[in-house]
Design brief:
By secondary structure, the chain is an alpha/beta fold. It folds into two domains: 59 residues, no CATH class; 234 residues, Rossmann fold. Helices cover 22% and strands 21% of the residues. The protein has a six-stranded mixed sheet with strand order 4-3-5-11-12-15, with helices on both faces. The protein has a three-stranded antiparallel sheet with strand order 6-9-10. A two-stranded antiparallel ribbon has the order 1-2. Helix 2 runs parallel beside helix 7 and helix 7 crosses helix 8. The chain starts with a strand and ends in a 10-residue tail after the last helix.
Length: 374
C-alpha cells in the first residue's frame, strides 16, 4: 500500500480529495514508490525522486494508491542548414542525445530542415509542435524544454514601413501604424550593430523592431513565439533556450511565470559561432557539455555517431550534489549569459541602457534536467 503521494507544489494546486480522485483516473504509469520520495528538508538541494525538482519544491499528500510523476518533454529546432550552418543541426543532435540517452526524457520532438512532413523545421510545424504537441503531453506537474539553434533574424516583418531617425549617436526606427504588434515596439527599436566595424552608422546598420529566429527561408518572430507559449496551458516549469544572434531580445516578449528563458547573446550582440571548429556553436556547446559532464566534438567523417566523446571531464556541479542545475550550467558556460527566471522580463535593453535582475540565477540553481544516466 502506497500512502505518500508526491505532488509538485504550484501556486494554485487543489489538493482536495475530489481532485486527487480525478488524478487516479488519468492513466499515468505507476513507478516504484521507493524511487519517488522526499527527504523533507526544504533547503536540502536534493532531488530524491529524480524528477528535475529539488525536494524543497515538492510537498507530500496522503492517499491510498497513486503517485504523480513529473514527466519531461522537449521540442528541439535546428533552423537552418547549408554551408556554415552545420553547427545548428549538430547542436540539436547533441541535445537529442543528451535528453534521450542521458536524462531519459519522456518525449522529444526534433524538427530539422532536412526532415520531412511534420518533422521538417518550418514555421508552421514549429508552431504546431509548441501549440499542439506539447499541450497534448504536458500536465501541471511537468517540465518542458524548448531549444532553438539557428541564425538570429533582427529585421522588420514584411509590409511594415520604417523611417530611420538619428540622434544621440544611435539610430532608431519609427513605424507607420501598429501593424498588429504588442505595445513594446518602441523599446525593441533601440538596437543596432555596425557589422563592418568602422564605428560609423552610415552603412551596415542592423536595426529591427522584431527579433526573430531564421527558419529556412522564413522567420519565426518574437510575437508569434510569445503567443504560442501562452497556448501551452499546463506545465510546472518551461525552459526556453535560444542560441542565435540578438536572442536576448526574446526575453522581454517571452518571459513569464514559471518560465526560464536563456539566450546565448544579449539583445544587441552577435552570438559566438564555431570558432574552435569542433562542430558546435561555442556558447551553447559549453551549456551542453556542462549537462553532459564531458567535452565532445563533431566528427564529420564518421559513418555513424558523429558526436564523439573526448573523455575529458567537465565538472559544472559546483555544489557537488550529484546533478547539474540549470544555474550551474549557465555559470559554467558564462555567468553573464542573459537569463530570466521570474517573469519580470529582465534583463532587457530599454531607453538606451541595460536593465538586469541579479536574482535570476538563484532560481535557476533550483532546477535541473533530472538525474544524469551515464
Amino acid at each position: 500500500m502506497i500512502d505518500k503521494v508526491l505532488l509538485l507544489k504550484t501556486k494554485n494546486y487543489d489538493l482536495s480529495e475530489t481532485n486527487v480522485k480525478n488524478w487516479v483516473t488519468k492513466g499515468k504509469n505507476m513507478p516504484d514508490p521507493l524511487d519517488y520520495k522526499t527527504d523533507g528538508i526544504v533547503d536540502g538541494m536534493r532531488d530524491s525522486d529524480d524528477d528535475g525538482f529539488y525536494d524543497g519544491e515538492e510537498t507530500s499528500v496522503y492517499s491510498s494508491n497513486i503517485i504523480i510523476k513529473n514527466d519531461r518533454w522537449a521540442v528541439l529546432v535546428a533552423g537552418t542548414i547549408g554551408l556554415g550552418a552545420e553547427r545548428f543541426s549538430n547542436t540539436i543532435d547533441y541535445w537529442n542525445h543528451l535528453l534521450i540517452d542521458h536524462y531519459s526524457f519522456d518525449g522529444v520532438k526534433t524538427l530539422h530542415p532536412g526532415f520531412t512532413d511534420e518533422n521538417e523545421a518550418t514555421v508552421d510545424n514549429i508552431r504546431s509542435a509548441i501549440k499542439n504537441w506539447l499541450p497534448s503531453k504536458s500536465d501541471e506537474n511537468d517540465i518542458i524544454l524548448i531549444v532553438f539553434s539557428s541564425h538570429g533574424a533582427g529585421m522588420y516583418s514584411d509590409g511594415e514601413n520604417y523611417n530611420l531617425e538619428g540622434g544621440g549617436g544611435r539610430p532608431r526606427f519609427t513605424w507607420d501604424g501598429d501593424n498588429g504588434h504588442e505595445q513594446n515596439e518602441y523599446r525593441e527599436t533601440d538596437i543596432n550593430y555596425d557589422f563592418n566595424g568602422i564605428n560609423g552608422l552610415e552603412s551596415d546598420v542592423w536595426g529591427g523592431v522584431d527579433e526573430g529566429i531564421q527558419i529556412g527561408e522564413s522567420k519565426l518572430w518574437d510575437d508569434y513565439l510569445y503567443e504560442d507559449l501562452n497556448d501551452i496551458p499546463k506545465y510546472s516549469k518551461l525552459i526556453l533556450i535560444i542560441s542565435s544572434c540578438f536572442s536576448g531580445g526574446f526575453i522581454d516578449d517571452c518571459g513569464g511565470e514559471n518560465r526560464i528563458i536563456i539566450t546565448t547573446s544579449q539583445e544587441q550582440d552577435l552570438s559566438i559561432g564555431d570558432y574552435n571548429d569542433d562542430g558546435f556553436s561555442d556558447t551553447i556547446e559549453k551549456i551542453m557539455d556542462a549537462f553532459h559532464g564531458e567535452d565532445t566534438y563533431w566528427d564529420t567523417l564518421a559513418s555513424h555517431f558523429h558526436m564523439q566523446h573526448t573523455w575529458i571531464p567537465v565538472d559544472a556541479d559546483a555544489d557537488q550534489d550529484g546533478r547539474v542545475s540549470v544555474g550551474e550550467a549557465i555559470t559554467y558556460c558564462d555567468p553573464n549569459l542573459w537569463i530570466d527566471t521570474n517573469g519580470n522580463c529582465l534583463p532587457t535593453f530599454v531607453d538606451l541602457e541595460y536593465k538586469y535582475d541579479s536574482t535570476d540565477i538563484l532560481i535557476a540553481n533550483k532546477i535541473s534536467l533530472g538525474k544524469f544516466h551515464p
